[in-house]
Amino acid sequence: MKVEYTEKKFLDLRADSLVLALTEENVDSGDVPPLFGESRRQVEGALKGSDFSGKRDQQLTLYTIGKFRIVCLVGVGEKSQLTNEKLRRAAAAGVKSAQTAKAASVVLSALGSTVEQVSDYETVHSLLEGAILGAYKFDKYLTQNNQKSKVVDFKVALQGVKAAIGQKAARDAQVVCEAVFMTRDLCNAPANEIYPEALANVAAKMARKYRVHARILDEKQIAKLKMGGLLAVNSGSAKPPRFITLEYKGSPRSRDWYAIVGKGITFDSGGISLKAAANMGEMKMDMSGAAAVIGTIQALASLKIPVNVVGIAPSTENLPGGSAYKPGDVVTTMSGITIEVDNTDAEGRIILSDGLYYAQRYKPKAIIDLATLTGACVVALGQHATGMFGTGEDVMAQLKEAGEKTYERVWQMPIYDEYEKQIKSDIADVKNVGGRWAGAITAALFLKKFVSDYPWVHLDIAGTAMLEDATDYAPKGGSGVGVRLLTQFFKQVAS
Q1: Where are the domains of the chain?
Q2: Is 122 in contact with 165 (CB distance < 8 Å)?
Q3: How far apart are CA 370 and CA 465, in angstroms?
Q4: Active-site residue set
Q5: Inter-CA distances, 128 with 71, 92, 149, 184, Å
Q6: Three-state DSSP class for 109?
Q7: Buried b (16+ CB within 10 A) or exposed e, 316-334
Q8: CA-CA distance, 222 to 338, in Å (whole number)?
């Protein structure tokens, strides 16, 4: 992938396609046709012959304009209402049209984009984010009739944006998108390719490339640490578990650490409490939290964000078998807290119990976990918002701000004490399910028992990580959610 920013006029650049984001004011004022030089009359006629007025999500596609085979004019609405997200969506829509025309290179530009609420840096960054993420395809296994038409060359051409600002924004957008792509690829890959050891190998390879310290614990080391939760869930699988730790030290002089913990179930059959056969194949993406942790560490290291973050990912399969853990079992976790297993399909919280407790070794300023944890959260929020629970009010406020900036939005849910009685066990310290009602809340309260007094936030990404329908710049399947959210969060922390 080639990404660059240039101060040149878009008409002076050579590429297959042009995507031009326009406000309603741009179209009303008649500013657009003169930009196209000798093709002015052609563009003017096309605008007059259409109902394109620059309203949000409107699109007008023109062919063979100047040096471009295809020109996509995309509306972003009123200038005063312009946002990062509108620019992302416009760029994504334009690039998808370019891909349909089998374009390999695209120039992105915008008119009238400089407004108080969107800086020059954000304009360049948002256009590229939308374009690059929108161009993503998971086609590794397509061998027949695969067109594989991808945009691989992205240029942003904006007048009035200083080269240093534009170039930094372009580089930053590229490395963040590369981290999201890696995360999406991990989530979309089949479970016979990405199993615990393979996931750990990906993490270790990334760590070597970006000079991050990786520590991968095997089954013997996990047992030595008495991680009973991870071992119990793994007991039905022929593939051994792995416990992944990635230490990014972007601020070597500081002793402050943040911990991010991701659920790494590389395939979830439900175990003895077997899931229904329909759509079980989607459970290859039950390691989306772990993938987001690995992707976030890659993004932070690429951007050299001055903050210390440890990424933690307990990883296993959850399968039925003669040695599998069973409903009614009692599991002793690394913390010593005992769990009554009421349902083996509520396994993510069991492995996270060990991950969250292990994170406290770093005495972190905050612990954030990401997990495709509950269907209940999908019922509550669908695929457009991540459920957020926790005790770290300042951290949650920062995550909400980061979510609005990146449009990986979070929505705070309650964890009132009254819900705790649902996970009370008669024979152990806690039960792993709380019945039919408030399933996402009782799951969060279960996790809360393993974080002591540290500020903690739980992000239930079940709806936002595994998409049943494509969004503007995320395909059906793995979305890579969490990478951009946490990267923006740590940028805010560092600043």
Answers
A1: 2-143+151-160, 181-494
A2: no
A3: 10
A4: 275, 349
A5: 17, 9, 18, 18
A6: strand
A7: bbbbbeeebbeeebebbbb
A8: 17
181-494 is classed in which CATH architecture? 3-Layer(aba) Sandwich (3.40)
Amino acid at 324: A
**pLDDT truncated to tens, each residue of the chain (495 aa)?**
999 999 999 999 999 999 999 999 999 999 899 999 999 999 999 999 999 999 999 999 999 999 999 999 999 999 999 999 999 999 999 999 999 999 999 999 998 656 678 999 999 999 999 999 999 999 989 887 665 567 889 999 998 899 999 999 999 999 999 999 999 999 999 999 999 999 999 999 999 999 999 999 999 999 999 999 999 999 999 999 999 999 999 999 999 999 999 999 999 999 999 999 999 999 999 999 999 999 999 999 999 999 999 999 999 999 999 999 999 999 999 999 999 999 999 999 999 999 999 999 999 999 999 999 999 999 999 999 999 999 999 999 999 999 999 999 999 999 999 999 999 999 999 999 999 999 999 999 999 999 999 999 999 999 999 999 999 999 999 999 999 999 999 999 999
Contact 135, 151 (CB under 8 A): yes
User: What is the Cα–Cα distance from 203 to 183, expressed in whole angstroms?
Assistant: 11
Architecture of domain 2-143+151-160: 3-Layer(aba) Sandwich (3.40)
**Rounded-to-integer distance, Cα 444 and Cα 331, Å:** 19
